[in-house]
Design brief:
Helix content of chain A: 40-55%
Strand order of the largest sheet of chain B: 2-1-3-4-5
Shape of chain B: globular
Number of helices of chain B: 5
Largest sheet of chain A: 6 strands, mixed
Order of helices and strands of chain B: EHEHEHEHEH
Oligomer: heterodimer
Number of strands of chain B: 5
Order of helices and strands of chain A: EHEEHHHEHEEHHEHEEHEEHEEHE
Radius of gyration of chain A: 42 Å
Helix content of chain B: 40-55%
Strand content of chain A: 15-25%
Structural class of chain A: alpha+beta
Number of strands of chain A: 14
Largest sheet of chain B: 5 strands, parallel
Strand order of the largest sheet of chain A: 12-13-11-10-8-14
Distance between the termini of chain A: 79 Å
Radius of gyration of chain B: 13 Å
Distance between the termini of chain B: 15 Å
Strand content of chain B: 15-25%
Structural class of chain B: alpha/beta
């Protein structure tokens, strides 16, 4: 059977109702008998002159009562209430006119089903069935308590089963819908993370292009010079001059190599930052990610920010490297902006028990205590219009905590400035390594041109 | 006649090495390099520098401030400022007051750069000869 889909008051089960299954107490026994026979129903409801149900009679009880009292059907033309008052009017239905639809059991156990005919209310009706007697039909009334029809208990039970099935299928459908929405939300969040990354990249592009300018300029200049040197070497020159030209040749090659490596490093950093690695985690070195992020920010920090690093080597983590780079860019950019583009940034990376502990401290004014709790809220920013999106730190929190099982917090340092602490879980196999981790300390001056 | 002294200051060693070699090869001049603008300021106070080639953005003191200091001290040493940030408004705004002063865009063209250096050195020697 097709599962019904009740929506509000449009209840499919109304199709199951015998709208004609009623009689008035003044109708004759024969009329009622004939009607029940014609409709093929076992029960019929007695209604008063205002169409209010006042009782119920069963076909069998009707026949049995008549036979017992009179032995035959000759008196069947007499009005019903004269002959079987106890059966019909032994109890009066309790109607709740304030309800839009009510199911009424014609005894003191009458129960009401609410307007939406929901499953739980229907269940309540069943639970209200009298325990010491059985009955097969239920009266259905209109919102004002007027007789609407009769429904057999069998159909009612079937309806309830359908309701359960419908509820189940509805639950499944809603579950699927919720999963779909969750997937969509997750995709939207990924897109947001990616958009923010691209926005950050956009802000970095000018600086990165400038950063590439230095090694590329050196390469161009070197190439020109090599041509010149080879030209001079092909001429008749003094041994001293030849030695000098050979020295220049060597130096040119060395400078060219260094410039190429610089370009390679920038490209590699860009690739790490830009990679779309949301699908799969990789093992990567936090130390390398910090270094590569500083390469990207070198020009942005220009001449006015000095970055001091005190970081352990390697510090392998299972991560989405592009996302971790994104967090580093966000936090470092935030630090730079908090200092008005001038000052010192201290980056420390050390090994904790279960986490790599990274701290990034600036020498800015710190965060006012009343804003501390809102710092990771999406859209929260203390910067002016057009400076940042206000999403960087909230996205960083999502990346660190949801995508990497880590933690990111902010506090004010006793010596001034704000300090971000980022914890990323240590790889399980590294947890058991007892050897101390080598450290590198440096003062990273952003290269400028 | 003593060789002119050209001072090159850039915080990027790649650049100072490259320029030093280029000038060595192409000019009859003494080339001094430093990666610190503060050190450059000291050199400028002590040595008879004929031409200053400086980077713009440097950590301790930027190229413009170095030239400003120079001019405040009454020095008229010609300055070539090499930069990739040629659109900086600060550069355009100060161009007139810092003369003799010329901005050359990175990446430079060797031939053009040498030509401009030679022109400024010739100017300087002509001025000092008169």
């Amino acid at each position: 059977m097709e599962t019904p889909h009740p929506t509000g008051n449009q209840i499919e089960w109304s199709k199951l109702i015998h709208h004609q299954a009623s009689f008035e107490p003044d109708q004759t026994v024969e009329q009622v008998y004939e009607k029940m026979l014609a409709l093929g129903i076992d029960f019929a409801a007695a209604i008063d002159e205002e169409n209010i149900p006042i009782g119920i009679v069963s076909f069998k009880m009707l026949a049995a009562a008549l036979s017992a009292k009179y032995g035959h059907a000759l008196f069947a033309k007499k009005i019903l209430k004269t002959h079987v008052p106890g059966v019909i009017f032994g109890s009066i239905a309790k109607i709740r006119p304030d309800e839009q639809v009510a199911l009424v059991i014609p005894v003191e156990h009458a129960a009401v089903i609410n307007t939406t005919f929901d499953f739980f209310a229907a269940q309540a009706t069943l639970e209200n069935r009298p325990k010491n007697r059985s009955f097969d039909d239920i009266i259905v009334t209109s919102p004002t308590g007027k007789f609407a029809g009769l429904i057999s208990m069998q159909d009612f039970m079937k309806l309830q089963m359908d309701m359960v099935r419908w509820q189940e299928s509805e639950l499944r459908r809603r579950n699927l819908e919720m999963n779909r929405m969750l997937t969509q939300l997750s995709q939207t969040q990924d897109e947001l993370v990616n958009s923010a990354k691209m926005a950050a990249l956009g802000e970095l592009v000018a600086g990165i292009a400038h950063e590439m300018n230095t090694p590329l300029g050196v390469l161009i200049s070197s190439h020109d010079m090599l041509e010149k040197i080879f030209d001079l070497l092909s001429r008749d020159v003094t041994p001293e001059r030849r030695a000098q030209l050979n020295h220049y040749l060597r130096t040119n090659i060395d400078l060219g190599r260094e410039a190429s490596e610089r370009v390679t490093q920038i490209i590699r950093s860009l690739r790490t930052f830009g990679r779309d690695d949301q699908q799969e985690q990789h093992t990567a070195s936090l130390s390398d990610l910090i270094t590569s992020t500083l390469v990207l920010l070198a020009s942005k920090f220009k001449s006015s920010i000095t970055v001091h690093t005190d970081i352990v080597e390697a510090a392998h983590v299972r991560c989405y490297p592009g996302q971790i780079s994104q967090v580093l860019v966000n936090v470092l950019t935030n630090a730079s902006q908090a200092m008005g583009g001038k000052g010192n940034i201290y980056i420390e990376l050390q090994r904790g028990l279960r986490y790599w502990e990274l701290s990034i401290r600036d020498t800015g004014p710190g965060v006012p205590p009343h804003l501390m709790e809102r710092i990771f809220d999406p859209g929260f920013t203390t910067k002016g219009v057009g400076v940042g999106t206000g999403l960087g730190l909230s996205i960083s929190k999502k990346i660190v905590e949801q995508s990497h099982g880590g933690r990111i917090t902010i506090s004010n340092h006793p010596d001034g400035g704000a300090i971000f602490r980022i914890e990323i879980p240590i790889l399980p196999r590294e947890k058991h390594e007892l050897s101390s981790v080598p450290k590198t300390t440096s003062s990273y001056l952003s290269s400028t041109t | 006649m003593s060789r002119p002294i050209v001072l090159i200051v850039d915080d990027e060693p790649l650049i100072t090495s490259m320029l030093s070699m280029l000038l060595d090869l192409a000019l009859n001049a003494e080339v001094i390099t430093t990666n610190s603008s503060l050190h450059a300021r000291e050199i400028l106070q002590q040595d008879r520098v004929s031409l200053l080639i400086t980077d713009y953005l440097m950590p301790e003191m930027n190229g413009l401030n170095l030239v400003r200091t120079l001019r405040e001290q009454g020095s008229a040493i010609p300055v070539l400022l090499l930069t990739g940030y040629c659109d900086e408004p600060e550069l355009a705004a100060n161009n007139e007051r810092l003369k003799p002063f010329e901005v050359i865009v990175k990446p430079w063209n060797n031939e053009h750069l040498i030509q401009r250096i030679n022109d400024w050195l010739d100017n300087t020697s002509a001025t000092s000869a008169t």
